[in-house]
Amino acid sequence: MLDGCVPWPPELAERYREQGLWTGERLGDLLRRHGDRVALVDGPHRWTYAELDARADRLAAGLADLGIRPGDRVLVQLPNSAALVYVSVALFRLGAPPVYALPAHRSAEITHLAEATGAVAYIAPDRIGPFDCRALSLAGPHWTVIDGDPGPHLSLADITAAPRPLPPPDPGGVAFFLLSGGTTGLPKLIPRTHDDYALQLRSAAASMGVDEHSVYLAALPAAHNAALGCPGVLGTLRAGGKVVLARTPSPDEVFPLLTEEGVTITTLMPPLLSAWTEVAPLLGVDLTGLVVEVGGAVLQPEAARRAQDAGIRLSHWFGMAEGVHWHTRLDDPPELAATTQGRPLIPTDDYRIIDENGDEVPPGSPGEFLVSGPCTLRGYYDSPTYNESAFTPDGYLRTGDLVRLDPHGNLVVTGRVKDVINRGGEKIGPAELEGHIETHPDIRTAAVIGLPDSSLGEKICAAIVPEPGSTPTLAALRTYLTARGVATYKLPDHLRIVDTLALTATGKIDKRTLRATLTTESTR
Description:
By secondary structure, this protein is an alpha/beta fold. Strands 2-1-13-12-14-15-16-17-18 form a nine-stranded mixed sheet, with helices on both faces. Strands 4-3-5-8-9 form a five-stranded parallel sheet, with helices on both faces. β23 and β24 form a beta hairpin. α5 (194-208) crosses α7. 47% of the residues are buried.
């Protein structure tokens, strides 16, 4: 493991190998098979496995000639493109872990990541929308490599050399870094090893039935764990299937691809699932049979049922870039996917559900979700102080999520430990209240947050996007919720009507920004 990374205890690592969970597979080998089969569709360009494999080999040799060595970190900020795939595989083969920045990141995040990792190089397109990546001034990286017009920097197209054998990386070593999805501060870095991520890829592909006949649509950013490896882009390529890349999840872009490329599976966040379900019949698009993995935020049962009624086969998941992954299976009853997040992807994962005192809760009761296992990290990169609070002394990750198990052992996420509104000592889970509000016929979507209050500590604010032509009032909403049996102390104290709810880079409702905006408004 690299300096700053926390390894699994030797006895656990040996157990995972003996159990056949860690097999010594290297991620750089995932393009070596399947030859002339189409591997990737990127706009008008189609790449075979052999073409991607050869490009990755030449690039790995070129990067080595440039001076990049095993163990060097390389900051990669590429949109969904063929370059993201062959750059990743080249770096896997070189043993120089890519640090995946998201396309939505800008100078503050990129500068932080470069400094935090000591990255020796930054690989990016010339532009991401209006953002000119070439204009970034990064003190750390020795090289800036640009896909497209390089300006004063190196061109990705020019970094090539005759393929040659390179020292194979240690399968137990770091393959790449993902970013935490935390809501406070700058993102933490998550080291993923070849062994643990290969286990995730093949387990997710097997569970979702992804094989050489599958066609995966990457509609979310492929630099994020959900679209990268659940099974995502890498898992589909490992299985010999075809990956179709979309720059955005907009129906205008992706709906034609569903038919043209015969897409069988994709990954969405709940707001996007609802948008696809609503727009598809208007555009004459049939979603019957499409497998959609959905998670990353609260999926309301009504939204799940509408998608299922449209013919979508749902797998409802709870996952983290840190390696935790639970999901419903495709042969589960539809209601299970509408109301739970299923069972663990890795059956040998250890977990606990604890109360605020650290004691395990009775069966069926809610508590904080703690996880340990062969895919779950043991510590964030170079963060010893933070790790003391993020992990238990015996290595369990504190997810920060409030969950319970149903009588059959299926996971039900009820909220966040830090997302609980404390109104005069009464605790309110926003997810529960949002579910009630979104059943209102005049409300399209809602986000519930706590706003500071001098007497109660917090008051409940519901920010809603109404249906066109509707203007719900606070009084009417409270009456509606009361009729649904919602307790009085859970009723919203404030109502804010908004045109849209801002999303994070990964498609979740950005409650941090919403809370800051509404708190500022309430103090004026």
